Amino acid sequence: MAALRTAVYTLVFYGITVPFVMAALIGAVLGERPMHAVIHAWVAFHGHCARWILGIRTRVEGVIPEEQVFFAAKHQAMFETLDLLNRLDTPVPVLKKELTDIPAWGWLAHRYGGISVDRKGGAKTLRAMLKRTRAMVASGRSIVIFPEGTRVRPGTTPPLQSGFAGLYKMVGLPVVPVAVESGHVWPRDSWIKRPGTVTYRFFDPIPPGLDREEIERRVHEAINTLERG
Fold first, then answer.
1. How many Å apart are CA 195 and CA 56, to the nearest integer?
2. Comparing C-alpha atoms, which of 64, 66, 70, 67 is closest to residue 173?
């Protein structure tokens, strides 16, 4: 049954994604607001597909702050990369460069405000990333990052990527750790999705200005509190 649900979800979601991308491209030409409206409609559509086709619900623990902050989230599945865009009120995502290289989608991600991280880039690439990050912070939007760098299996708690502490210092915003439990319904190593509940746990903001060891310890500890292990 889970395989059938997943097949239907794949056909419906990715089939409808094509006209959404086309609409977003047109919206991007018209301006930021139309493009954001289309992208948010798309991620909302994804949430409906996950709920009504796959049987995946969401549960939120803690309070999502309304002020500008730096969200640092656990990453177990593609689900939260889309769901958080709506849940966090148009945040600026920090993305791997490989994602922004995808035709059409990558251009839209850049237009949306995404910050591309090229781990193999040189000094010029780093300066461009820092300049863009400062511009996004100045715009008043919150930033969201997956500080472990990639999706991980449930029970896995890798160290944070070295660049996280540098971004924390540069943006000067309070950090809100977000524990996420999604890998049990959206496995990394299987195309089959399973019914269940994705849980988010939002922690109280951690103030800016802490040293690297302290901020990494506190964020790492918080985002891993839901690990089944």
1. 5
2. 70
Please enumerate, as own/partner, the contacts of 218-221 that have beta carbons within 8 Å and a separation of 24 or more: 218/177, 219/72, 219/147, 219/160, 219/164, 219/175, 219/177, 220/147, 220/157, 220/159, 220/160
Angle at 184 between CA 188 and CA 202, to 5 degrees: 100
Architecture of domain 58-223: 3-Layer(aba) Sandwich (3.40)
Rounded to 5 degrees, φ, ψ at 174 are -60, 145
Q: Is the pTM of this model over 0.90?
A: yes
The angle at the Cα of 205, spanning 68 to 196, to the nearest 5 degrees, equals: 95
Mean pLDDT in runs of 10 for the chain (229 residues)? 95 96 94 93 97 98 96 96 92 86 84 82 72 91 94 94 89 97 94 97 98 97 84
What is the rounded distance in angstroms from the CA atom of residue 127 to the CA atom of residue 15?
A: 38
Return d(Cα 13, Cα 176) in angstroms, integer. Answer: 31
What is the C-alpha to C-alpha distance for residues 43 and 216, in angstroms, rounded to an integer?
30
Tokens standing for residue 11: 């056909």
Q: How far, in Å, CA of 150 to CA of 96, rounded?
A: 9
